[in-house]
Amino acid sequence: MDGSGIKEIVTLIYAENSIKYILNGHAFARALRAHVQIHAALAHSVLSMINCTEDEKELMTSLQEKIGNANISSDLNDPSYAAILQKFNDKLQELSADENPTNKLWVQYFQMVTLIKRFIEAVRCTSWDDYLKCIIQMLSIFHAARHNLYAKCAHLYVQEMLQLNVDEHLQYISHFSVRRTDKFYCAIFSDQAIETSLMKVFKDPGRGLTHGRGTTEADTAKWILSMPVFLDIFQSCQDYCKVAVFGTSEQHKSDMHDDGGVTRVKRDNADFNKINAWLNDNSPFRTTNQLVSLGTGVIGDNKVNCFKAFEVGTEAVQRVFGHKISDIKVGRKYRVQPLSIMTSKIKINDKDVPIDPTLLFQRMCLVKKDDVELKNFFQYELAPYPLSIFDENGMRKNVKSDFYDTFTTCGKTFTCKYFLCYRWRVFTS
User: Fold this and answer.
1) CB 121 within 8 A of CB 127
2) Within 13 Å, how many C-alpha atoms sit on residue 183's CB side?
3) What is the pLDDT of residue 114?
4) pLDDT value at 427 more than 80
5) Do 194 and 58 have their domain in common?
């Protein structure tokens, strides 16, 4: 999705300096929230293109009012809801036609975010079969994005999980995620359970070992041997006394999830309205046979195939069948090319490679031994455009007040009347 306009959308709800960490996944919580917000706005756009009956509109309105306040499981089994869902899927299928690459790209993105949400749901609800299905569907995405290590590990993991014996399989079905409470939708991975229980106390200021004090081998050994035993006692004391050591607000003391608080819901609604308004002005679903960036208007050529990520990834998955994990090598032709190569690419061995010129320059400054070596670096093509004039969004926007420094000061002192007469003579001469 690099260069497709998703960066401009995320900029609407997050600070610009944090965007790169959100898009590369380092800020996981923010990235997940941003993608879910865009997912909802895209669903709203698709739904507005569907002709629904009055009864179907009333059903969706009632469902919207019940969400968060009542159980809607029975309503989801209503035949009318199934009809609406079928219309929605048919519309997505219509928009994802090959002759409309821009539409297909954003429908593909919608399906990827849907896959992420299903994966989280499978873990939260301890659904083993859905969990494995999601990982299998992710294989093509890993290959298309050329995350080779993720792809190899996922192949090996799925293969081993499908070959479990009966006893181990029964254990994995109900215990592959950890539930510390009996609340619905609360299961997490085992490593997350360790991080939020044992390691949370370990890193807590005042009581842990990593803040405000030195750590010796004796302290570490004492903590490792005693804390797993005292953790349950520690938690029981909190429950009995009805106190929360790691959170003092009512939100932390209650059973409500952080994302379900009044403040978070209010902010989510405001951000949704911002994204929805932007998509109304820059619609991703347009009648054109070209791949167009929503943010910059750049048109992709025949080398850009990011809208075919599933097809390219599926072909790469099929080629690795029957090979050993150590022998798997994915060629560059099975990596999709994003729209960003139209504005940020250089040629390496007669192949277009997308780069970040600023990041490349920073790394050169770090690895150079002396200025002579840095000078040798500049013998090669390092940027697709002059960085002093342009950035990835176009011409740089400098500070307007800096333009004043280019004027030379005048040594004469003018009165107002004389100054106006002087300006008039200059103008008429």
Assistant:
1) yes
2) 10
3) 92
4) no
5) yes
